[in-house]
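Hi all, long-time lurker, first post. I run a small reading group and we've been trying to get comfortable going from sequence to structure in the token notation. Rather than ask abstract questions, I figured I'd post a concrete chain and ask someone more experienced to write out its structure so we can walk through it together at our next meeting. Sequence below, copied exactly:
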Amino acid sequence: KAAKKAAPKAASAKSAESRGWEPATLESMFAEGEISRLHKVGENPQIKPELTAEHLRATGGQVITRFPPEPNGFLHIGHAKAINVNFGYAKTHGGVCNLRYDDTNPEAEEQVYVDSILEIIRWLGFEPHQVLYSSDYFQQLYDLAVQLTERGLAYVCHCTGEQINEQRGGKDKGGARFACEHRDRPIAESLAEFQKMKDGRYGANEATLRMKQDLEDGNPQMWDLIAYRVKFAHHHRTGDAWCIYPTYDFTHCLCDSFENITHSLCTREFFQSRQSYYWLCDAVEVYKPVQWEYGRLNVTNTMLSKRKLLALRNAGVVRDLDDPRLYTLPALRRRGVPPQAINAFVRELGITPADAVIEVGRLENHIRDALNVCAPRIMALVRPVRVVLENLPENYFEEHELVYHPSDTAFGSRRVPFTRTLFIDSSDFRESDSPGYFRLAPNKTVGLNGVPYPITCTGVRRAADGSVSEVLCRYENEASVPKPKAYIQWVADSPQHGSPVRIDELRVYNPLFKHANPDEKSVTGGFMNDVSETSLEIIHGAVADIGLWDSIKRYAATDAGKKELNEQNVETLRFQFMRIGYFALDKDSSMPLSAIESDQIASTKLVMNRIVTLKEDAKKDA
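-- Answer (accepted) --
Happy to help. Here is the structure in token form:
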């Protein structure tokens, strides 16, 4: 194979940022607004003074936050903000953040989601202080439920869901509210009924434990919320030990209390829950953290609802929940989006109380900025056309040195072969010339990237069906010709030198939906009817210069590369295909380490995803 000048290991994201890209810092998220003025540890009032003293002894005055996802689906782009807020607030204040899985609904939870959540947090650059589960506290939670009942602040209810809805004022909550017939049953009776629930003597929906709050309060979160329900379902950690499970409304604040969380940071949808959060902590007389809410993050042109994502998968619209057309974090990772771009996006937006729907183009700009500094440049051809330089001998051979990055020598370079036969992209050739068109056409001269002399088209050869099979050209190495107005990409047809590198599949992703908001009422037939038929184009036969294979080999020579190849986490191999877009290897690729180390490219399968287009250029077709 052609001798290649070994390039240094691609620069890290951190060093890349120092070379020109300056994304918003983690500290900048918390420098302004209400979140910059939150209470200090121990300043939040408690129902009993000794609770503050115990809290300060336990924390040592250190900030403790938590990120509490339910393991019933993949995290999405909105969770990236929550991760940055919770882990970031702790980090910038010298504290720690726990990961706590809210695993109180065994029917919906799966180990694959448990594993993915921790992996994604680490991918974004954070490390939990502790990995905890709400199920760690099942016995403590049950004991407090009994205590709440003993205090006359909880009761067992046998009403149906429809009856409870009527008691709360009906569908729109505008009707009269009234107490359940079981609300004033004797404490001893509720305790006995709760024990029956625990013993499995009631079926699902036959009995619940409800908190006795305040039906006259204007806040629906004070209307006797359910604390426990019966579920005969196998739990991923506790097995069949329990048949009653606490609800989020009962679990969340108490787990925060058990862990001495100093700042319970959550999205605005839980604003009304703050009152019931405080009520329950005070009702059982435990330490009461402070809950503070911020606005949710959504982006246009996508869908984040778990239920709707599952509907798309089940209908075969997407392959799985990590399909690169989606905006789950595993999907964005698979597409090749750098984690630092996602962090930069959410940090730039800051933290405000208002929910935000952000144009997806803003995220894409951050992706481009990140890739611009960390992606090596490769010449690639989507639909290659053979070019024959007729004035050169059959065995003609040159080598040309091409840099991987035009403004960063740290990326190094590679030496590519230049031979009598080469390929150009079909978009760079026209049989009929036109004004303002500067690329290759009959009797027209064009430059080749990195090559000292241009080529001039002298004719074409046609296949049996009349299509162009070869473009005939002259290599202008012996004549004086004007400097060409355009330079195009090319790849040598020289198998003995490993060129071209053939890409088995090039997956070009476009927006999954036709409308910016596929959920809006104006979308006829709903979101499933809004799916774009052009959201995925699979191209076979694309080729690239030997720098692509060279980069894969250098990657495989590192310990990190070996590990990620074995785990099929190959999306860190990202490239700018010049004038085409940014691309990354997909996990559907087959790249055995033995094949890479022995230069057996024919034993591999390269599948590449388009991460994002290049920035728009009005003259790119000129």
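A couple of things your group might point at:
The two ends are 35 Å apart (CA to CA).
The mean pLDDT is 93.
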